[in-house]
Molybdate/tungstate transport system permease protein
Amino acid sequence: MRAPELLVPAALGGLILVYFALPFVTFLSRTGTATVVAGLSTPEAQVAIRNSLLTAPVSTAIATILGVPLAYVLARTSFPGKRLVEALVILPLIVPPVVGGAMIITAVGRFTPIGSAATAAGIPLTDSLIGIVLAQTFVAAPFVIITARAGFGAVDERLEQASRSLGYGPLETFWNVSLPLARGAILAGISLTFARAIGEFGATMMVAYNPRTMPTRIWVDFITGGIDATVPLALALFAITLVVLAAVQRFGRVPTVIDR
């Protein structure tokens, strides 16, 4: 297209870009009125940071270990009920997080068979770090599954067939051929999953309001102290988001999804 033909699309796109940027600019402009270091040094903030940094990596690891094999199956095979499986993967992305948290409670809450058995064994699945992990995994795992599936879909199947023709089995081919070739998409998915997990609020609030994570602590700070009280932890989460963005751009690659 010639430049004049791009004026209207560029103007419309510019409006949404301004809308994206405005909240960042206005929020960051308030940092001068908040004692960030002091805010992050309080016992409550330290506990919230610790809980988030303990649970988000665990959730990301669970999502990766279980989700990447599922992504490979979805990328490489067709089977009865595949559309249902794909819908189950996507549903946590589109269900409101608070609703997702309520669903988790109906499955593993302390008054359910699973939850009561776990509590009796001394492993409560709600209002605990395990509950946080359950909530984070539910809402964040689809990111690594979807991006990994796209990565595997972009791998030329002839390379896998060549590996099999050389005598390598399915697992060896997956480990030595498919996985390395889809590495960029998988790394992007892992990074996005971690960012979504550490920033999760709605489902976590329902399943495990205590112990506090960074997002739930931000909510408490807002209720008790207003917007300025949220700045220290919000900036910390924002910094983590920037690190994740840099990692995705540097090491990750999200290819076009290839449907089969």
In short: The chain is about 75% helix and 0% strand. The radius of gyration is 21 Å. Residues 30-250 form a domain with the MetI-like fold fold (CATH 1.10.3720.10).
